[in-house]
């Protein structure tokens, strides 16, 4: 169908189509909103086929299995106080497939609820017209109570949360780019047994948040320049049993902010030029750091209280100035990543105002030579003398190429 | 006064010390920019260097110049001209030539690295301005110690002590007070304590301009809120001006009263 064909309205086409039919859209502008789809359909079109929601509500509202939408562009879905207007809403769908979509100027991008087994791939979601207020902005890809979803190769920018998982199990997020979103690049709530790998999270308001979730695996992601007063590369809140491996944390205010995290393994991550590489606010048990690189961070680790079996082994610390007499690549004296000023700044918030002052520099130096105040129960007994080189094979270049 | 200042500047610009000081900044400037390659990050390094060095060199150089040019000053004192113009002129001369070294020494590396076309132009110019102001403040203090005592060792020691006091000990006491009174709200105290010390004030003003200010968190936000307002800027500028006026007044007073 096309704007000048006998069937020019998508609504009519959907009504006339039988289950499992395919509707082909030609290039052109279609003014449609609140399209209800209750049967399995495939809708395919080129990027030039633009469905304009005219800011009158949502565009697609689907409750059907085997729904496929491919290639088209959707724009202009306005903010609503009452409803979560989105370009595509999927409700109780199975085997949905959304691919190559260009979604622009919308409140919510893709909203999936109560659905099972689906794919969202290669979509671009952006909102240039949206405000700067969290309350009036929606999320790029929002999944609620879903299972077995695959979110891959998408590009999300200018939304509230780039990708949002709430009560989502056994799903995978990979090779997405989430950039310049107002709040989080990726947001997990109450979602267990999920994997996200090889994504890139850049310049989001507060980075990536993983909250109240179990068994989340994070591989090969890049967290870059999530910078600001309340911004984190990765925020972990009430997390149990995760793996964080092969990630790059570059120039974040806080690379990993922990507010209650238990049994997390950090293996072979790069922490470069962050304000804080790892910040613990309490409730941390049995975390294990192994073969990570800490380079040029203002504060390496901020941790207070009992060690709670949190361990650091064989990491590279650029602030380490010990020696290695037997040349086995491991320093002979332990490294204490919590330095004096980190301790002071944590004890008395206001003392951070002395950052970069001569006195603090001298004091830190004195403490390094002869520690008196520095907490000594968090340490790396076997710091590496040289950068740990891990094979970068798991990190896809496609996520970095964007 | 201006003629005295001009003489002093001409004298100092030819001196080995000024040139060494200038070369030092030039080398450090190029070295840091070359090694880091990142202008934003190197600004933090420059900030630390400038905030330590300009007061220190100002203190040492100011008192040193006062004592070495003593004979010339006594010659001038015999001339029919007001005493204040002799000493204020001397202060002006030393301050200007030290400022010149800083401006040229750091300015050339920055210009050649194209920094002035980048977003860091503002903080960099501010850094230079504050560096020059700190140089003036501490040469003024050094001149006062020179005027107070004829004993070179005493004068030198006192001048260095004042530098040590403001650059290091002040922050130490500041920190101890913060630790002692940690149960109380301390933002106002921290703000006032910072305003009172020209080195701390310069450091905080500059930090707030840079990326690194995000690390200051809540406290930084309080400072930003104050220094971001018109009153805040006026108060901060006023405090620095006060630190310039105070030595000026003292120099005038001492110059008038002193028996040479």
Protein model, in words:
The complex is a heterodimer of chains A (402) and B (260). Chain A has helices at 10-16, 340-347, 358-369, 397-401, and strands spanning 21-24, 28-31, 35-37, 41-44, 49-52, 60-62, 68-70, 73-75, 86-91, 94-99, 102-104, 108-113, 116-121, 124-126, 141-152, 155-157, 163-169, 172-174, 177-179, 184-189, 194-197, 200-202, 207-214, 216-219, 222-224, 232-245, 248-250, 254-267, 270-272, 276-280, 284-285, 288-290, 293-295, 299-302, 311-313, 316-317. Chain A has 402 residues and is mainly beta. In chain A, the strands form two sheets. A 13-stranded parallel sheet of chain A has the order 2-5-8-11-14-16-19-22-25-27-29-33-36, with no helix packed on it. By secondary structure, chain B is an all-alpha fold. Chain B has eleven helices and no strands. Chain B has helices at residues 2-13, 16-36, 39-68, 70-77, 83-112, 121-148, 152-180, 187-196, 198-209, 217-228, 230-257. In chain B, helix 3 (39-68) packs antiparallel against helix 7 (152-180).
Shape summary of chain B: globular
Radius of gyration of chain A, in Å, reads 24 Å
Could you state the order of secondary-structure elements of chain B as H and E?
HHHHHHHHHHH
Taking the sheet with the most strands of chain A, its summary is: 13 strands, parallel
Largest interface: A-B, 28 and 38 residues
Quick one: biggest sheet of chain B? none
| Global geometry of chain A | elongated
Uncertain residue ranges of chain B: none
Catalogue the unreliable spans of chain A.
394-402
The number of helical segments of chain A is 4
How many helices of chain B? The count is 11
Total count of strands of chain A:
36
Mean pLDDT of chain A: 88
Overall helicity of chain B: over 70%
Oligomeric state of the chains present here: heterodimer
Structural class of chain A: mainly beta
């Amino acid at each position: 169908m096309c704007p000048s064909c006998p069937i020019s309205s998508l609504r009519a086409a959907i009504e006339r189509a039988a289950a499992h039919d395919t509707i082909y859209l030609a290039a052109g502008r279609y003014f449609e909103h609140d399209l209800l789809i209750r049967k399995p359909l495939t809708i395919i079109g080129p990027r030039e086929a633009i469905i304009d929601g005219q800011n009158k509500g949502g565009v697609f509202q689907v409750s059907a299995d085997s729904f496929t939408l491919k290639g088209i562009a959707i724009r202009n879905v306005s903010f609503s106080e009452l409803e979560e207007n989105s370009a595509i809403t999927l409700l109780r769908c199975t085997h949905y497939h959304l691919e190559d979509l260009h979604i622009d100027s919308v409140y919510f991008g893709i909203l999936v609820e109560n659905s099972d087994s689906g794919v969202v791939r290669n979509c671009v979601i952006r909102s240039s017209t949206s405000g700067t207020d969290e309350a009036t902005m929606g999320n790029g890809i929002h999944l609620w109570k879903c299972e077995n979803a695959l979110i891959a190769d998408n590009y999300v920018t200018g939304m509230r949360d780039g990708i949002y998982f709430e009560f989502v199990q056994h799903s995978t997020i990979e090779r997405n780019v989430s950039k310049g979103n107002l709040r989080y690049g990726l947001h997990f709530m109450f979602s267990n047994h999920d994997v996200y790998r090889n994504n890139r999270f850049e310049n989001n308001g507060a980075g990536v948040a993983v909250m109240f979730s179990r068994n989340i695996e994070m591989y090969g992601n890049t967290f870059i320049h999530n910078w600001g007063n309340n911004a984190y590369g990765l925020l972990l809140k009430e997390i149990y049993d995760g793996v964080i491996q092969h990630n790059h944390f570059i120039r974040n205010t806080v690379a990993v902010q922990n507010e209650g995290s238990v049994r997390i393994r950090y293996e072979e991550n790069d922490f470069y030029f962050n304000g804080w590489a790892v910040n613990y606010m309490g409730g941390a048990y049995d975390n294990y750091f192994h073969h990570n690189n800490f380079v040029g961070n203002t504060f390496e680790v901020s941790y207070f209280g009992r060690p709670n079996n949190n361990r650091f082994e064989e990491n590279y610390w650029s602030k380490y100035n010990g020696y290695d007499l037997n040349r086995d690549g491991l320093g002979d004296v332990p490294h204490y990543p919590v330095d004096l000023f980190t301790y002071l700044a944590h004890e008395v918030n206001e003392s951070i105002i002395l950052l970069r002052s001569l006195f603090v520099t001298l004091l830190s130096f004195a403490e390094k030579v002869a520690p008196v105040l520095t907490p000594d129960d968090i340490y790396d007994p076997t710091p590496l003398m040289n950068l740990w080189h891990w094979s970068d094979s798991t990190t896809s270049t496609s996520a970095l190429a964007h | 006064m201006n003629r005295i200042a001009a003489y002093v500047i001409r004298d100092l610009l030819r001196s080995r010390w000024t040139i060494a000081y200038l070369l030092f900044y030039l080398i450090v400037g190029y070295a840091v920019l070359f090694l880091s390659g990142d202008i934003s990050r190197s600004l933090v390094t420059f900030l630390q260097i400038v905030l330590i060095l300009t007061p220190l060199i100002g203190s040492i150089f100011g008192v040193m110049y006062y004592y070495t040019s003593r004979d010339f000053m006594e010659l001038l004192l015999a001339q029919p001209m007001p005493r204040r113009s002799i000493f204020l002129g001397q202060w002006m001369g030393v301050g200007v030539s030290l400022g010149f070294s800083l401006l040229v020494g750091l300015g050339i590396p920055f210009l050649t690295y194209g920094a002035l076309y980048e977003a860091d132009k503002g903080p960099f110019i501010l850094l230079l301005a504050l560096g020059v102001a700190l140089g003036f403040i501490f040469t003024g203090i050094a001149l006062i110690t020179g005027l107070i005592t004829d004993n070179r060792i005493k004068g030198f020691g006192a001048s260095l002590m004042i530098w040590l006091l403001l650059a290091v000990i002040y922050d130490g006491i500041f920190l101890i007070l913060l630790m002692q009174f940690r149960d109380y709200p301390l933002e106002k105290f921290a703000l006032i304590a910072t305003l009172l010390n020209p080195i701390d004030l310069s450091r905080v003003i500059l930090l707030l301009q840079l990326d690194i200010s995000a690390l200051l968190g809540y406290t930084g936000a309080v400072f930003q809120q104050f220094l971001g307002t018109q009153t805040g800027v006026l108060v901060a500028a006023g405090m620095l001006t006060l630190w310039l006026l105070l030595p000026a007044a003292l120099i005038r007073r001492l110059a008038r009263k002193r028996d040479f």
